Amino acid sequence: xxxxxxxxxxxxxxxxxxxxxxxxxxxxxxxxxxxxxxxxxxxxxxxxxxxxxxxxxxxxxxxxxxxxxxxxxxxxxxxxxxxxxxxxxxxxxxxxxxxxxxxxxxxxxxxxxxxxxxxxxxxxxxxxxxxxxxxxxxxxxxxxxxxxxxxxxxxxxxxxxxxxxxxxxxxxxxxxxxxxxxxxxxxxxxxxxxxxxxxxxxxxxxxxxxxxxxxxxxxxxxxxxxxxxxxxxxxxxxxxxxxxxxxxxxxxxxxxxxxxxxxxxxxxxxxxxxxxxxxxxxxxxxxxxxxxxxxxxxxxxxxxxxxxxxxxxxxxxxxxxxxxxxxxxxxxxxxxxxxxxxxxxxxxxxxxxxxxxxxxxxxxxxxxxxxxxxxxxxxxxxxxxxxxxxxxxxxxxxxxxxxxxxxxxxxxxxxxxxxxxxxxxxxxxxxxxxxxxxxxxxxxxxxxxxxxxxxxxxxxxxxxxxxxxxxxxxxxxxxxxxxxxxxxxxxxxxxxxxxxxxxxxxxxxxxxxxxxxxxxxxxxxxxxxxxxxxxxxxxxxxxxxxxxxxxxxxxxxxxxxxxxxxxxxxxxxxxxxxxxxxxxxxxxxxxxxxxxxxxxxxxxxxxxxxxxxxxxxxxxxxxxxxxxxxxxxxxxxxxxxxxxxxxxxxxxxxxxxxxxxxxxxxxxxxxxxxxxxxxxxxxxxxxxxxxxxxxxxxxxxxxxxx
Length: 706
Ligand SMILES: Nc1ncnc2c1ncn2[C@@H]1O[C@H](COP(=O)(O)OP(=O)(O)OP(=O)(O)O)[C@@H](O)[C@H]1O
What we know:
Blueprint: H1 11-18, H2 23-72, H3 79-111, E1 116-122, E2 129-134, E3 138-140, E4 143-148, H4 155-159, E5 164-170, E6 173-188, E7 191-197, H5 200-211, H6 228-234, E8 241-246, H7 252-266, E9 276-279, H8 283-289, H9 292-295, E10 302-304, H10 306-314, E11 319-320, H11 332-341, H12 344-361, E12 367-369, E13 372-374, H13 376-385, H14 391-409, H15 421-429, H16 437-447, E14 461-462, H17 464-478, E15 488-491, H18 499-508, E16 512-517, H19 531-537, E17 542-546, E18 548-549, H20 554-563, E19 570-571, E20 580-584, H21 587-604, E21 608-613, H22 616-626, E22 633-634, E23 645-650, H23 651-654, E24 659-664, H24 675-685, E25 688-697
Parallel strand pairs: 2-4, 8-16, 8-17, 9-10, 9-15, 11-14, 15-16, 18-19, 20-25, 21-23, 21-24, 22-23, 24-25
Antiparallel strand pairs: 1-2, 1-6, 3-4, 5-6, 6-7, 12-13
Helix pairs in contact: 1-2, 2-3, 6-7, 10-17, 12-17, 12-18, 13-14, 14-15, 16-17, 17-18, 20-24
The protein binds adenosine-5'-triphosphate (ATP).
The site of adenosine-5'-triphosphate has 23 residues, from helix 5 and helix 7.
Domain UvrD-like helicase ATP-binding: 225-553
Keywords: ATP-binding, Helicase, Hydrolase, Nucleotide-binding
GO molecular function: 3'-5' DNA helicase activity; ATP binding; DNA binding; hydrolase activity
């Protein structure tokens, strides 16, 4: 084996060293080689697309013909034949969808069939082989032309900066060998834009190029520039729960979605998109990230929100009041109640209580039917025999035992006194100390001296903070309808869930999980969950940490670090304007400055501008005032889609999203003075990719000064 460029740093130097050519000639040779390869690949893709389209046309003709036959001979076809026809049509439908999907992928490949090349020689297998890596794999003429970014060999590209001895894990075992080339290839609209042999400097350049792009209304695919630390998370296949703690903009959400794509690829046949679900903070966020999996050639996954999950677990037994925000709510008593229920100690108390529910809630008594009595001890033993089941499920089983016992041991006249199972169940239910989960919850709160922290409104309406613990008790009382169809769950913005809410999610979704978020972005003082609390809620979860921030320019990251030094963001070298911090005399000036920023944004040709306020109510008020002059979208809990243009939102609603430019309103002591508000300001400034304007009235927030 003759390595092509052992240890070379970049293609220019490497070519120069190895060939007696000038740098220019080396460049031209690489360019010519890659252009020829690109032309060949595009030719093959075009041919495959032609075939796929022709096949699609034939399938559609066949479908139409079969339908026509069905209609024309409706009266004459017997039911068996009609059924056969339906099955055949369903199969044709499936093939049509597949061929449509294949054609769509091929069209995307015409734009950019691949983004990289690695030359690797496996030990003992002769000279190096070139692997081209793309978003989708592609085979033609009996060979692999492009390998999927998730294929085992592609790990070489993500894991190695330098050429040299290397290895990757294949299904058949570890493949050792020599990586002689790692080339980054920029292809846009079918044209080769750049070709550069990788070293860390090139990798950084490519990353900076990717990051410098404008944001979109949809989250982007990052396969061409996944970093080694991110790659390890994406390719982590250990069972159980993986918790990703990452600073703002560290790519957590992107990685989680690429990880789902990776798992779908690796476990094809066993895991499909139907088996993966996402627990997302709100609908706008779900819409924002919805495009990533389809862009990677996978079906979209189902998104749930926590409220939906909690209400389903409660099964309509109570009503749940809307969630309140600790930024807007001035009700100190409510804050106190919420704070209590957001602690890990509260979650622990609920868990301990769940363990004792059977003992607490059921007191066995003698049970008499006619002349026969089953004594309390007999009942108690049977009740306890069904550990792990919900109270009501146990009562069903004990009722069945009662009937069986009486039936099998009664003779003569006593047989008339044997109860039905329903009657036995009714009598056993009379031994419950609590008639439902809500009574149990009251009992639990009273037992801990927390009765004052329970505010139940009319028509059994409980506060949002009580809904999850109550749902856990509902599970202990009546049993849960679990999400058994879900084999992998992604929980995003983990810091939005309190410890007890995490415990509920862990019980409802008993499957592999990727849980991600940033415990530095808790924007609710009613939640004191730490990273350890989150990991504990899911049993023995593995925790990984990401500290590099990819989203914002170094200047914006520097400001974010001043606002919240504890976050410890590491910037990626990418420079832009200094953030502007502007004092305003009054609301009129805040509006005028904001409009100025909107006009500059419009002129820049960038795609998204976020105008953010600490408060939901004031965000709505500002949106109303601004909409007199410019088009703006207000993002609320009810918003369904994330649009290009100007969005106005509270910081809480903007979490997880990003904008090319951000204006933070009222960044002064009125809104940003407490520790919670420090976090809000941190979240707000870290939403910006390229430009940030911070407006304040009166004294600027102390956090802006560091
Ligand atoms: N390796 C990468 N290559 C290119 N872009 C990347 C990479 N990693 C992250 N990004 C970009 O960084 C931005 C932040 O990513 P993402 O939203 O996934 O981060 P996050 O950690 O979930 O952020 P937050 O917690 O602040 O919401 C996105 O624009 C994403 O495309």
